[in-house]
Write a structure and sequence with these properties.
Elements (H helix, E strand, L loop, with lengths): L2 H8 L10 H29 L4 H23 L13 E3 L4 H10 L2 H20 L10 H23 L11 H20 L8 H15 L28 H30 L5 H20 L5 E3 L1 H10 L4 H16 L1 H7 L4 H26 L3 H18 L10 H7 L3 H15 L4 H6 L1
Antiparallel strand pairs: 1-2
Length: 442
Amino acid sequence: MKNKDRSAIENIYKLDGRVPLLSAIPFGLQHILAMFVANIAPILIVAGASNLTDKQSAMLIQNAMIIAGIGTLIQLFPMFKIGSGLPIVMGISFTFVSVFCFIGGTYGYPAIMGAVLVGGIIEGLLGLFARFWIPIIKPIVSASVVTAIGFSLLSVGASSFGGGSGSENFGSAKNWILGSVTLLACILFHIFAKSFLKQLSVLFGLVVGYIVAVCMGMVDFSGLSDTNIISLPQFLPFEMEFNLNAIISVVLIFMVSATETIGDTSALASTGLNREATTKEISGSLACDGFISSISSLFGCLPITSFSQNVGLVAMTKVVNRFAIATGAAIMILAGIFPIFGAVLATLPDAVLGGCTIMMFGTIVVSGLQMIGKCGYSQRNITIVALSLSIGIGFTQVPELFDIFPQIVRNVFAENCVAVVFLVSIILNLVLPKDMENYIED
């Protein structure tokens, strides 16, 4: 390879380096494959709980891919003060699923859309004015949240490895074989590949796993027959309803989602760029999350937020080039405009995805621990991390602990360790003495 070509390829490790299109596409595709199934799963779950038809569910998936692609482009290349300028990939978050299932079953899907419109605007405004409140989010708080995000995703990876939560053959020998083959392919490729090709280990594992899945008869192509080749997104497919109870519940979950976005942005800057995220980047990231979510509701879709899975991929590969990630955003938009493309990607078995993501999620845990190390192991920091993680992760593993609280509190905290860790770490950071070591010595 010529020195000029090698230099261009190595720009994948630079935020704004120039990378040839054909070299950039595999890295963008890798990001989309890593999140595609997880991106559409919340839509299917909420659509089912809200009694939507299969045709409506397919329409929502199509719209969501387009909005997620546009949101990713805005994160990469900010407009005004909206967007972080970091390689953040946007998608449908699982954070809202439980509260949306309750609202959809009780008030109907239009009430979800009205609540998302309001909640997104509120988060977007909080993002624009983040400089006034972000100082209370100290590095040790961000480090605790990032670590919690990593731990919370481990069960997601494990569920995918087993074949997908709720699947009829969950934990079967076939899923174990498929997940293990995919994971082994990722590891071997990362070991033996040369230079920048190592960073395509997840894509290689996905391709190998998919081929093995086809040979094992584990890929269902039946859904492709009725798929349109091209289709444009539908604007306002549902007439919005503004229910106060639904709005209050969703706004609270938006605050939880904002917590995750702060953690994702901090983790990405730390692992991908070896520095702390700036206030401007966090502000833009939150504003993009909020306002894009509101736009998403206009197309009948759920909130679009930063995807922790892709933060793990950046942590693992160190590929931060915005142009390379933008090719992935373009692929998402094409998947929305050409539903047949998205339908093919949707045939990717969960076990293949689990084999690729389990290590990525572990990388987020390690990234959080590294951030804690950079903060220092003072008695104060140890107390904040130890208590926030033990309460956040421990209590949410036993959600019955929250049964004495109102439904709205259970919706926000009972099974969301990230929200609990954030709340506890913020409180401890505000109330603990700044000079705890002096108290201990006395």
